[in-house]
């Protein structure tokens, strides 16, 4: 049981052999069970037998979020629905969500990976851990929950949204660990300070992820709460939290590369870059049964290091994230694409498709203002009409994004028209 060990010490050759064997099996599996991959392989004249080792991975086609959307909801599943025991979903680029399904074995592997990550963060069966990622379709809550439970820690399924209850229980239950987004933890530290509870907590470790955070934020969390904070990464398409996590040396996030094969690619040519060079991260899920993905383009920018870590672990490490190749934002832990706003505004006759999103962070909580331009035909300065329209647009945006936004209606022709690529976002948070 790897999660119970302090270090995974497979040599690089052993890892490569394992990855090769798993890739060969995977390619055969998707070819016979997922029409999408069979067609993609046939289109380039590839048969399963052509893939003999992990080096052959570059012959295989990529998968993107759009492929999941085009095959919504279950088109990329490799098993019948009777084998799927859980569904999760995340934001799609426009109307449709990105849906993923897990078999019982997928859930076991997921719990194992999260357990490894939490073990790296020092969590043991003696800990009391508050899970303050959202529970529900988002993978954060249930993913972290199952991993912590696998270790045998005492799991407190807080979810998000009630900071006072969280801080009270943190003290009353003697919580020693917490899993939540880094910005939420900074907010929690403020609530604890306001309530005079900072010296009453027993917290030792935080497992933070689901959004980008800087080294400065990391230090701030550690010093405000006098704890060790760890960076956990993952994405729903590939699994959820637990694809990678950093250890006590914080020299990159150890990838669970026996399950998820990482490639770093030049995002223009999509060819592999050398260790240490920044590029787009792609993952091949080596063991997933429900929705196996080949060379899934995460759009996250990072670099990779295959050297042995100071902690002794031999798994490849990816660096703290350096940005994205697309325009996805993460606001209050929720993935948001500007194109979702555009698609939502089309439903509202009184406004033009011109809009501007202004994202900020106040008291460590993200704020979103959406400025929307009134159509000349509907121009009015009557306050009651504007108020009703503001409410209507707020509702439409909330439905589309899953988070609320402050809507500001502006006069016709007042938003800046760009000469080239339209600029729809001003992000004042400086997260990379
Ligand atoms: O955010 C899964 C997760 C939950 C990870 C809890 C960690 C903790 P999605 O909603 O699909 O899944 O969003 C995935 O979030 O492609 C990154 O852009 C971003 N992201 C996740 N973790 C980190 C991190 C979950 N540690 C997208 N640092 C990814 C920076 C992160 N960005």
The CATH top-level class label of the largest domain: Alpha Beta
Rg (CA only) = 23 Å
Classification by helices and strands: alpha/beta
Strand content: 25-35%
Q: Determine the fraction of residues in helical runs and give it as a percent range.
A: 25-40%
Mean pLDDT, to the nearest integer, reads 94
The total of helices stands at 10
Report how far apart the termini are.
36 Å
* Name of the CATH homologous superfamily of the largest domain: ANL, N-terminal domain
Instruction: Walk across the major sheet and give the strand order.
Output: 4-3-5-6-7-8-9-14-13
Strand tally is 21
| Total domain units | 2
What is the level-2 CATH architecture name of the largest domain? 3-Layer(aba) Sandwich
Most strands sheet: 9 strands, mixed
Residue stretches low in confidence (pLDDT < 50, at least 5 long) are 1-6
Overall morphology: globular
